[in-house]
Amino acid sequence: MDGDVGHQNLSISELENLSNDCRKHIVRMIHKAGAGHPGGSLSAIDIIVALYGTRLRFDRNNPDWSDRDRFVMSKGHASPAVYSILHEMGFLSESDLSTFRTLGSVCQGHVDMKWTDGVDFSAGSLGMGLSFGLGCAIAARMDSSSRETWVMVGDGELQEGQVWEAMMAANFHEVSGLKMIVDRNRIQNDDFVNVQMEVGDVASKISSFGWNVKEIDGHDMSEIVGALKWASEQDSAPSAIVAHTTKGKGISFMEDNPSFHGKAPSDEELSLALEELS
Amino acid sequence: MSAPSAGGASRDGYGSALLKLSSDHRVVVLEADLGKSTKSCLFRAEFPERTVSLGIAEQNMMLVAAGMASSGKIPFASTFAIFTERAFEQVRNGIARPGLPVHICGSHGGIHTGTDGSSAQSIEDLAIYRTIPGLTVITPSDDISAEELTIQLLDHGNASYTRTARNKTPRMYDTESVKELKIGKGSILKEGDDVAIIACGVMVSEAMEAASTLADSGVDACVIDMHTIKPLDTELLDEIRMKCEGIVTAEDHSVIGGLGSAVAEYMSSAGGFPVQMVGVDDRFGESGSSSDLMESLGLTRDEIVKRARELLNSR
User: Fold this and answer.
1) B70:A132 CB<8 A
2) Contact B147, B20 (CB under 8 A)
3) Is the terminal CB of chain B with fewer CB neighbours within 10 Å at N or C?
4) What pLDDT is attached to residue A5?
5) Mean pLDDT for the stretch of residues B65-89
6) Residue range B202-241, pLDDT digits in tens
7) Percent of chain B surpassing pLDDT 90
8) Are residues B156 and B26 in the same domain?
């Protein structure tokens, strides 16, 4: 292993505190930019924090370390969640975060591996990340490496057929190094998922594709950490965690509110949000 | 036009190139149920552990290739040209945008593919891929050049799209002359000062035949195999502009957006120059033999000759 490697084994309370800090970064970034996606960032952040805080092996001094674990953020619009944890892990500075969505920024609107150290995938078009992660995981197996590939997808994203192509292929090729987390926050761009096109019993559908599946409360840090460990230990098939989450989690007026899928908080809303997070 | 037994299909060159590249263990091959057609099956037979079958799911294949490229592999992914188009956005957003060295091969390109009919005849692939920043676009004229250009992709760095053809065409190169080929540099097959015929893919042999016909009437035509559509060899175009009266382009592709467009775009920006395009007019193909289709849609040596004469007469 190279230098300063992740996999930090933070405690549950440390992870919860880190999540809270990240939530503050998320709303501040989006407020400053005047644009962005708070809802899906806030639903995903507890899981992302747990992933970086307990599982991922990375080297902040060598972001391109070839044997690092991969985190593929397929729901790339929730980029503030990724930038907030990359800041906390030492990849991005506070001033980097403040440039989110501005010309030349390392914090592009959607996560982009070409622009940001620590980002493993160029997202923005839903449905592609699981396939990319599958490629990473197959390459790892060819290299006889135990590095893991973690992919986060949204539940609305499951409407994209390519995700199911990737699930079928991962099962057929028995790619156990591939781990998928579904952020089941029940809201997509226009409205609730069950209004737009319900994706149904996600866990049983994924299970029917031959994957190991576990369902959890995606905001219960102990459950998240346990599920990530469980997924990491599965070596018979690819594994999925269906995390039931709340869009906008942690900020009362954003919770379960479709209008905060892709809207920046006003000055007043930012103050209220930071008050709730303090 | 009948398929000569002495020739080779460019898809065969792709297949043999993969075998020659196999000594580099970064090379991996991805298939979408058409390996027997694109000829990646040759690699699969020897190196099944480095071949990934993704089934009839081209969008997934493109991103699996991207993920492998991001992990240090050099993926060669193939299917029919037309089915790569189904994954156009995956190529754009998942491969080219992050700058991952994935090499896509679309076989059975153009109406030359024949009897399968219009659903299988990609006549727009070169146009759409040419619009993607940083993507190299290649269409070789025979099996020998297809092999050489594919081998050169190993150290190319950028993502690429190579169109190959299903059917045999006369060989334009031999094992010696092919060594002169270089991605991004047009290949002068015949020198000439009156008119330049710039062709690609299966139309290169037609261009040579057209030059021969023109020579009978005293017209000295230069023939160029422009195997790389992007980046376009503009230095060579500048040379042509200095010595010839005009250009006839020839391609088994829509006249909208392909080689002819690329040449005309450059010539327009360079101050203007007569360009005549031989290609598929704004229409779909249909079932038929290669030769019947080429004749019916005007992809012939006679059409090239006619356009060259028109161009010279109008000067």
Assistant:
1) yes
2) yes
3) C
4) 60
5) 98
6) 999 999 999 999 999 999 999 999 999 999 999 999 999 9
7) 97
8) yes
**pTM metric for this prediction:** 0.96
CATH at B38: 3.40.50.970
Query: With an 8 Å Cβ cutoff, is B48 touching chain A?
Result: no
Active-site residue set of B: 58
Q: If you ran DSSP here, which 8-state letter would residue B179 be given?
A: G
A67–chain B Cβ distance below 8 A for any pair: no
* DSSP helix/strand/coil, A258: helix
> What is d(CA B201, CA B225) in angstroms, rounded to the nearest whole number?
8
Give kind and range of the element (H or E) at residue B76.
strand B74-80
Total of domains in chain B? 2
Nearest alpha-carbon partner for B97 in B135, B59, B130: B135
Q: What's residue B5's pLDDT?
A: 40
What is each CA distance from B256 to A126, B247, B283, B298, in whole angstroms?
30, 17, 10, 15
Distance between CA atoms of A206 and A219, rounded to whole angstroms? 21
The residues, ordered by sequence, that sit 6+ positions from A159 with a Cβ below 8 Å of its Cβ are A188, A196, A197, A199
Looking at this protein, which amino acid is placed at residue B167? N
CB atoms within 10 A of CB B282: 8
User: What pLDDT is stored for residue A1 in this prediction?
Assistant: 42
Give chain B's radius of gyration (CA, Å): 19
Taking only the tens place, the pLDDT of each residue in B111-131 is: 999 999 999 999 999 999 999
Residue B297 and residue B206 share a domain = yes
Rounded mean pLDDT of B90-110?
98
3-state secondary structure of B293: helix
- Residue B7's pLDDT band, with cuts at 50, 70 and 90, is confident
B5 within domain boundaries: no
Those residues with Cβ within 8 angstroms of residue A23's Cβ, 6 or more apart along the chain or in another chain:
A42, A45, A84, A250, A251, A277
> Which of the residues A68, A77, A131, A157 would you substitute to probe the B interface, choosing the one with the greatest number of B C-beta atoms within 10 Å?
A131
Clarify whether residues B151 and B199 are in a common domain: no
With an 8 Å Cβ cutoff, are B67 and A112 in contact?
no
Residue B105 forms beta bridges with which residues? B78, B162
